[in-house]
Fold these 3 entries.
Entry 1:
Amino acid sequence: MTALAGALEAGQPSRAENDLAIVRQTLVRELLTLNQYEESLDAASAPAVKALLAHLLFEEKEHVAELVELLKKLDPDQLHHLETGHAAGISGAQTNPQRDVGARATVGSLLGLPQ
Ligand SMILES: [Fe+2]
């Protein structure tokens, strides 16, 4: 259990820990929403509906990026992992070049996971 998880479980997180937890929870919600918009975009048929969903999907990706940037500022360990080591290795070596990773790429598709 991490220090943050322990503090939260004990019910006494610091303000910084609470803010970090909020940012992580919000990031989860944004990623889930992004996937829902992507699924809806695939299922929709009317051009106007598809256009709106594509717009919303693009905006969700912006929100994810904003939250990741904030997470990097609030959590130095996360910053380290995002900018060095495993994350840096994933950026090129483990993507699946056979798969279309254009405007509608997901975390799973970038990692070559079945969709
Ligand atoms: Fe959002």
Entry 2:
Amino acid sequence: MTALDGATALATAAGTAAGTAARTAARTAVGTATIGQRPGAPAPWIDDPYSQALRAGRGPLFLRRADGWLLPLDVERWCAAPDAADTGLVYRCLRGPVLDIGCGPGRLVAAIAATGVPALGVDVSPAAVARTRGAGGAVLCRSVFDRLPAEGRWGTALLVDGNVGIGGDPRALLARVGELVAPGGRLLVEAAAYDVDERFTVRVEDGRGRHGRDFPWARLGPAALRAAAADTGWTTAEEWSADGRNFAELWRC
Ligand SMILES: C[S@@+](CC[C@H](N)C(=O)[O-])C[C@H]1O[C@@H](n2cnc3c(N)ncnc32)[C@H](O)[C@@H]1O
């Protein structure tokens, strides 16, 4: 199945006539991901070291803050088959169709689809989209803040591997995801490993001198996630930890 076919099929599965929109949008270049970036370095997530790492299937790769703080990115795990913590997420995707926001190389999209639940990945990185497609997953090269197929009809959305940081404003992102899921829909979201509530500017680096442009990012620990969820119309139904990672299941009120 191609990305285009996948998006169209999922739009249909979501009970919408958004197939045409999905086709059009699947041909659209990446939109909001490039907003607010300094010229002169590769765009974040798109043609910076992230793409090269995804093509190679390995790091080293880091998010670096201006003050020197360094967060290692687990490219090898993202490019591998789902581990036990991921599998726990897959089996919580009971309500389809599922939208994996910032799907990266697509291990979750492919695994969810393999259970028979329709799943679509969305990611701004062409390298991530290519890998997801290669893994057999349906995927769109698009920002979560762009128009998406079947808005308001997704049964479950995912924000995994720190993706609650996308855009650097978790409340804006949670509100946006609230527009995407159906009434009573679910959001499975990963929190940081400990209690932080941070918004900052980072860039992707490979530790060997190559880096992309600055972009906004955020990190929320479990307590901050709970508060942000409550502020944006989500109810925290459950929280759990697996392999040192923290997750929450939010329900759309
Ligand atoms: C921390 S990585 C997460 C990787 C992914 N969850 C996985 O399983 O490999 C963040 C991902 O979000 C994507 N991303 C960043 N901004 C985005 C946006 N506005 N809309 C959709 N995806 C975005 C990046 O391209 C990247 O693949």
Entry 3:
Amino acid sequence: MTFTSLDTVMIKQRWIPNRPHWSYSQLSQYLRCPLQYYFQRVVGLPIRFTPSGMALGSAVHHGLAVYHRDLQLGRQMSAHQVQSAFIEAWQAAENGRPMQFRGGESRNGLVEKGVDLLETYLKEPPPTDIVAVEEPMVVPVTTSNGEILEKPLVAIVDLLCRTQDELKVVEFKTSGRKMSENETDTSMQASCYVQAVQDRFDGPVSVRYTVLVKTKTPQVQHIETVRTDLDISRVGDVIHTVERAINAGAFYPIESAFNCSGCPFFKPCREWRGTSQTRALEHVGETTTEPNSC
Ligand code: SF4
């Protein structure tokens, strides 16, 4: 096993370079709900529980990373070893924050689901010519006007492989349903990854989303997408605009079942009155766990 610490369970969320930077997760959080971004990244409210879906996804990613790193070294782990890595990562998450389950979910049912998802993926032909596994790449952010922003973008791709004609970024998702072509073609995440890989390596880059679908009988979906220079400069324009919005203090809620179910800041959000940083700061020292039950 090449990972030496179970703290890497959430490597994508936790990896921080020495200088201020943008990541796709920061950008997407602001675009999804600016108030949630504010509570987490401006005020620094503690996150008191881990949504079960996030814990499952992180632990599955850990199992996949361990498997792919071993392949990169010319070895191949057994399904049992990969599943053990997943279970260790799940247990590490359990030993951290309390876990919040959705209605109808059980701890053992989710662990079984993760094991089944990995078993299904491991029946696929293993990836070859692996170039990188969860490797952070730092890339300057440039707008369509050629302006280079102060903060770079840090992208951590799940898997990067070399094919005969190009480099292929493989991004893994665990989801209750398959992704549509429209979703992958408009995903800013894919644009961020292509930008980062193009900056580091020569040649064309494409993206494959590999979705481990949490249906009763798990499925694996592969869906390909490409990006143009226009898509990539659009990322720079979006980041530039989001930076200006943040500097102007534009933090507002975007309420939806998708956003708010499992949001760790449900309580301070209910108390938010438009501008009140003071009310939010009252939650910094709280010790109780009061997750949203939506
Ligand atoms: S509860 Fe919903 S609207 Fe409020 S911060 Fe969380 S995601 Fe945003």
